Target: SET domain-containing protein
Amino acid sequence: GGRTLKRHNYNGVLNPGGTGDVIQYAACPGPNEKQNMRSTFQYFGLRNGDLGGLEFVTLVPVPKNTQLLHWYGSGWWEERGIKRADVGTKRYPAPLRDAPVKKKRRREVEDDDNGTLAKVDIKELTKSIDVEWMRRHEQSDQDQKSA
Model:
């Protein structure tokens, strides 16, 4: 759980400035970083009251000196005229996003010859199916003409 601290609230927003609350130092991850904490949306206190709080939890174990990062919202940077940038430093690193996986148009299909799985390019597979269908269709037409 969290703790409730005295703050100056405005329009229901909790402002931790001027308190000892660690959340005021948690940054928004940059484009190559990922959050390691998030809000549970569990609020405490009254809207615009003297006391209030919002619970946060870590998503993964956080190593010593690692920055705490949580998502501020999709428009936060732009609304302030700030170019979104990575916030991690050598001394206080931020967790990095996993490298993007390039998606290829490949699927696993069973190979009729030996029952193993093989990776096949969908376009090539479609071409070979079309060619096979045409071959069988032409053979069927020839068989009907001969009969």
Notes: The first strand starts at residue 5 and ends at 6.
